[in-house]
Amino acid sequence: MLIRTTDPFRELDRLTAHLLGTTGTTNRPAAMPMDAWREGDRFVLELDLPGVSRDSIDIDVERNVLTVRAERLARNGDWEALASERPRGMFSRQLVLGDNLDLDRIEASYADGVLRLVVPVAEKAKPRKVEISGARDDEKTAIEA
Asked: Which H or E element spans position 68?
């Protein structure tokens, strides 16, 4: 069973954060923690969104800005909060992605409270061979760009 205790300083912090519209300072988790890494010809992003419904997640790409929005709703019905430390409401995170990524082929999946985005490297950004022609057409050599 959860025992309800009152900490006047913590309650004051929560009230101040609520009134100012901030997430608080010490005991609040980051709204959307993220890990990012490269695997070969693709970039992978994972964002933690525990308790968020898949239907409330919105992913937009405009030019080279990726925006992720999600909403964690408060419970409805006849209940009394005993502890309320997880932030609720709308969360948003924007990432500026480089021109070397193919933003038209982003793949997204959501499982176990983790949003996974896979962004492939654009074909134009991959290494390729360039032919060099000499004075005669039969003197061609390939070099790597």
From this structure: strand 65-72
